[in-house]
């Protein structure tokens, strides 16, 4: 089986990773995290979210975060924007890419963005048009592509249908998200292959939460069928406030350890990501949820005189 030589990792820790934290994290800590991730070599960092602060209070400091970070030329800084209000705030804050986020589950769509799938597409249409006029890159994200915490099964037909709608809105990239981490490798290949019938596989990305410990296997399964973009979260941070019980995204350190071990180029310095993971974990007062990150940090500490 031929695996790709190069993979793009979108670091989503500062947004997906932190949005679910109960204690409000100072903007300066978020800025320091994004700066560390920039220095580690990511080409794309999801740094902020311009959603209603009543819905996700942790993301209320997004404009402050965007204003504080040290940008490296060529790096894409992304943010969620569910509606025109979010888009305008994201544009004013200087994001490079906005993410419209829908779902393949009607129940989740209602819980997360307070509207049906069809209504969400109507809401995204002016956002997509305006984002184009503003010269912003546009990404679409589809939650619950492998299962839903409210309605259970989700069909691959529905995923492909939503992919088609996101494509018609002009998305440059579309994320197929396992919000609650229930997908398994063969299912993931089937859903991705259906999605690739509606949108080029080179512009699809896999966004896996690791709730059931399947995320690395699912990424490997995606590599086998030609997916080359994945999302991950430093220190395995994360969870969705509207998907109770869902744990964090797959840890970036674990993904990098696997990809580099496979000889796949990412352009990212794993050691610097381990440092970033230890930094944010220590701020949050708990151990990082990355097996490779913690092992590398421990072996480094053991090697010190
Ligand atoms: C979509 C809405 C706004 C609809 O929420 P709504 O209540 O139907 O909206 P509304 O238009 O009636 O507005 C209600 C209030 O929110 C304000 N408002 C409205 N929009 C904004 C905005 N953009 N920025 C700031 N404020 C905003 C608006 O001004 C108003 O304020 P009020 O008049 O009551 O004072 C809401 O449901 C929402 O913000 N949802 C976001 C939920 C969310 O962020 N979830 C987590 C991200 S998705 C995710 O994590 C999944 C993903 C992407 O990672 C992939 C995966 O793993 O599945």
TrEMBL record:
Pathway: Metabolic intermediate metabolism; (S)-3-hydroxy-3-methylglutaryl-CoA degradation; acetoacetate from (S)-3-hydroxy-3-methylglutaryl-CoA: step 1/1. It is an enzyme of class 4 (lyase). Keywords: Lyase, Metal-binding. The keyword DNA repair does not apply. GO terms for biological process: ketone body biosynthetic process; L-leucine catabolic process. It catalyses: (3S)-3-hydroxy-3-methylglutaryl-CoA = acetoacetate + acetyl-CoA. Its EC number is 4.1.3.4. CDD domains: DRE_TIM_HMGL. GO terms for molecular function: hydroxymethylglutaryl-CoA lyase activity; metal ion binding. Signal peptide: none annotated. Residues 7-274 form the Pyruvate carboxyltransferase domain. Transmembrane segments: none annotated. It comes from the Bacteria. PANTHER family: HYDROXYMETHYLGLUTARYL-COA LYASE (PTHR42738:SF7). NCBIfam families: PRK05692.1. Belongs to the HMG-CoA lyase family. This is hydroxymethylglutaryl-CoA lyase. It comes from Pseudoduganella umbonata. The lineage of its organism: Bacteria, Pseudomonadati, Pseudomonadota, Betaproteobacteria, Burkholderiales.
